[in-house]
Amino acid sequence: MKYKLIALDLDGTLNTDEKTVTPKTRDALLAAQRQGITVALCSARPVPGLYKEMRILEMEKYHGMLIAYNGGKILRADDKTVLHQQSFPCDFAKEVLRHLEHYPVVPIIDDGERFYVTDKNGYKVQHECWNNQMECTEVPSLADFLDFDLVKILMSVQPDQLWQVLSEIGKPFEDDLVFVRTAPFYIEAMPKGINKAEGLRRTCGLLQISPEEVMAFGDAENDLEMIEFAGHGVAMGNACDALKEIADEVTLGNNEDGIAHTLEHLL
Hints:
The protein is of the alpha/beta class. It has 11 helices and 14 strands.
């Protein structure tokens, strides 16, 4: 099989636990791009949160693709042209934000350039700002402040409360939104129909690539659809059990150059 696109989740997949890309993995992905294979970063992060890894992999030079917000926004790496964006309207987002005030979660929203929160010292807020290299502004009320459409609402929640919260929090909006766990301490709310597979499907359409020609790497629940969509779906050694069960291959962990290990034997 001649693969034409490699889709990569970031945290727990491309990145080590120290949030670095190892030289071996970087070299393997540069070699793939030199062969004419397109690399797509496919992450729950906002767009600026993809730039560090984009530069490490020289994706502007090799015309890579950026799939942000779990598929909610698609851009070309070289000129940052937005090819697709799906969001939920401001008034509806305000309603959701008021609903979240009744739960033990810390909502974090963004306008594509900076984060907005009600408490800069809230659980995982500084972690999210650092991880995405984005500034953070504190406001008294997110619902009152909001005057733009949102692609997603991120919520941080204590891991021991996450599953209980997740089972209840989305019920009033289940016709319009999906609430998904994206880390042991994160829940994300997105418009229904947005997931990494849909983002990848649109990207493949734009590049005239078939799903069979896609190799995808992931580790978490929000990678499930993407791993199923790809012609060759790879679960990292550190991936959740659900992902390992449906993957075509389970490679080494994110701290053990799992991506490079797979590319060496498939390319």
